[in-house]
Write a structure and sequence with these properties.
It is a multi-pass membrane protein. The chain has helices at 2-30, 37-82, 92-102, 106-109, 114-136, 138-168, 170-184, 189-194, 198-250, 256-297, 359-366, 389-393, 410-415, 425-435, 437-442, 469-481, 500-514, 549-555, 558-575, and strands at 318-326, 336-344, 348-353, 374-379, 382-383, 396-399, 488-492, 518-522, 534-539, 542-547. With 592 residues, it is of the alpha/beta class. A hairpin with a 2-residue loop joins strand 4 and strand 5. The two termini are 72 Å apart. Bound molecules: adenosine-5'-triphosphate. The site of adenosine-5'-triphosphate has 13 residues, from helix 11.
Amino acid sequence: ASQLAVTVVAGLLPTGTVWVTKLLVDGLVAGPADRVPAPVAGLVALGLAAGVLPHVTAYLRAESDRRLDLLLQDRLYTRVNGFQGLSRFEDPAFLDELRMAAQATGGAMGPVTSGLFDLCRNVITLIGLLGALAVMSPLMAGLVAVAALPVLAARMSLEKRRVKMIAGQSAAARRQIFYSSLITDVEAAKEVRLFGLGDFLRRRVIGELTSMQAAERRLDGREALTQSALAALSALVSGAGLVWAVHLALTGRLTLGDVTAFAAAVAGTQAALVATVENAANASHALLLFDHHERVMSLSDDLPSPRGPVALPALRRGIELRDVWFRYGESHPWVLRGVDLTIPCGASVALVGLNGAGKSTLIKLLCRFYDPSRGVILWDGVDIRDVPPAELRARMGVLFQDYMSYDLTAAENIGVGEVEAMSDRARIENAAELSGADQVVRALPQGYDTLLSRIFLGPEDDAGVVLSGGQWQRVALARALVRGHRDLLVLDEPSSGLDAQAEHEVHRRLREHRAGRTSLLVTHRLGAIRDADLIVVLRDGRIVERGTHDDLVAAGGGYARLFETQASGYRVDARTPAAHRGTGRDRAPLNR
Ligand SMILES: Nc1ncnc2c1ncn2[C@@H]1O[C@H](COP(=O)(O)OP(=O)(O)OP(=O)(O)O)[C@@H](O)[C@H]1O
């Protein structure tokens, strides 16, 4: 309301000024000195208002932009969090749309929100001045108004093109951000320096920028051309008007005040028209951006919502994959081809297979990051598609192969595994002991309160600490184990980065921890799963062998051969260490 009041007053100012100026000039010319003070006082008051109002408007506008920004961002990120699966985040078209939607900030929406008041003010000014002009010369008022129409049309179409151009540049802009972030990213710094990638990346950044700028330049050129042509048209109109007014004044049919008011009214009308067109164009730009925001908001859920959701009971019998087929998209090859697997409640199941066999994919399906293309996954007989994903995930603890390293304190890095237990230090320490992270964290300068980051400063302005790869892995494992009481524990390569001693220790503790719990362990280290209740071998998306370690070795199939290769690698090296150095035979054979 305050913005509206300020707008109306500000909108009437120019007309008032023109009118009072006419009174003053006529008063001065006509004689009696007592007709001068009132218009002078009026002009002073109008000048004061004209000086103060813009600042009041600017404050009110910034405030409304801030509020709108909070609202829009809250809305957008709530929607994005609502996408429960991963497929949207792997869809470049969605990422481009999201980038455009994120540009619809409070500030960018200004032309629609507070800009509406501008538009309102300018329209009021315009009507006032056009009215004044029409009194003096209806023809001139008509001409000035009609000359504005092509300007308006041209600007609108330019804005449409501009937003289309920005949208078309989304992919290039994302590439540019990607390349430039590699140049400044601490994670990438090693390889960038060793491989001498700096220049290569810089050229890519500049290349993307240049191509984006070329499109902008074309549009700017077009805009400058149309705008100049249209400005010339209005100048011609006002020039003609002035000639006409001067002619009338010379022949005594207009007073000096009339001519002054006329010239001011024409100039003011044209300025108000330009401002109105500018408002409308900016508003249309903002609305086109808002369209992207709305498109993201209106996207359907990526995972079909549960058909009549049922509550997920605690696991009592087991999890069953029944003829599960999966590919990442219609044009992608099948990754899982008819997997039948039961993970009985309370059993420790191990999943092994060559790189790319589909092990991590199977885990992602268990977490319902994607739905199987065919087949079902049953949790005690309940199709997991009938359960809200959050409820399913709340029943699982998972260590992903590509786990996150958060720039948070050690305690928080573990605690994020169970947000409710974030401040439960005993629970965090228990999990850390189990994963072997405890001894690492205790040796840090502030123990569990040490910031594990080199990009943020700690509470006392001290730099954070960098952990080694294996140390991070222990922290990540603790993060999964802090949810240890969950029904299903899934560990994807939990020990790949650990030294032999730590690996042995971790697996020993995990064996104890997993005993009697339902767990699925993916690993290339076959020695670590010898006592799993069930070992499953995945090859090309199919289960080709299953049984206990002894069953599989006795069967003499692929598992037995892999196990023998790994074991013999160690034995040969132990006997004649020098003879085989550099042959690579000590590397995990499953990886070859
Ligand atoms: N997000 C994805 N989009 C498309 N294809 C994918 C995606 N993730 C994995 N794939 C493909 O699916 C196949 C199986 O990958 P997956 O990660 O499940 O293998 P894995 O058995 O875990 O291998 P590794 O032992 O190397 O971890 C691979 O061919 C891979 O290219």
